[in-house]
Amino acid sequence: MNFKNIQLGIAPINWTNDDMPELGGENTFEQCVSEMALAGFTGCEVGNKFPKDPDVLKKALHLRGLQICNQWNSYELTTRPLDENIRTFKKLIDFLETMGSKVIGGGETGNSCQGQWDVPIFEGKGHLKSDLEWKRFASGLNTLGSLARERGIKLAFHHHMGTCIQTIQETDRLLEETDPELVFLNYDCGHFYFAGEDPVAALQKYIHRTAHIHLKDIRQGVLNKVHQERWSFLKAVKNGVFTVPGDPDGCIDFEGIFTIIRNSNYSGWIVLEAEQDPATANPLEYAIMARNFFKSHTGI
């Protein structure tokens, strides 16, 4: 296969950060989606400044040749009852179905330290501490995945720094204990590398279960400081641990990643992203950088 079954999107977090709204606070929704289109993308995920009214959002996106491909859902299966998770999940499914999206993403935030400025990312991450906790967690995801499937949408769970699903070992168990027809993976090479894993080996292992792909790069020098100075996730982001594919400061083997995708049956969206401080990493400039890099390596 080649990349003919792939659609290319970009994340609005490059323009305005959801966890730290002061990053990119000056950037409007209109600027964000206009620059996405200008850079050559056809899809995007949902940001905190996007209109909540589907008709308003659809019109703005249609004018720019964009569509919604996914939205983050904050699962809180470790800290809130399942019925509360179901209510918030159904509301988001309603919205995504209206927008024509086939994927709902997100990760477990209930016991995560990802949004805490002063908690070291590696020491403070969430954990599932017993077989019973794992069983409840997996059962909850299966329930939500079944609700999504009934609406023609795939639950693509995002392994994420600071959460209970951060490492290869944790991702393995997540996928082993959930139904492969109900729970899929939102693969993210940047988060696997950040976690100390080989993102190429991870994609090779999980490509058959992957329903959505995020591609970002890592600045190794910043990651070294995260370890040395025990930074939180937010501090790492603000100081530029992430960057877009195509940035010469990055260190991930994208050739290996592209080869796996090219030789797989994956079809769907690839979203290029890198939550950075827009004041130091101009979003349009980096979006164009990433778009040109992807086209030069894949032809699309």
TrEMBL record:
InterPro entries: IolE/MocC (IPR030823), IolE/XylAMocC-like (IPR050312), Xyl_isomerase-like_sf (IPR036237), Xyl_isomerase-like_TIM-brl (IPR013022)
A UniProt-annotated Pfam family: AP_endonuc_2
Record-annotated Xylose isomerase-like TIM barrel domain positions: 36-287
Name the record gives this protein: Inosose dehydratase
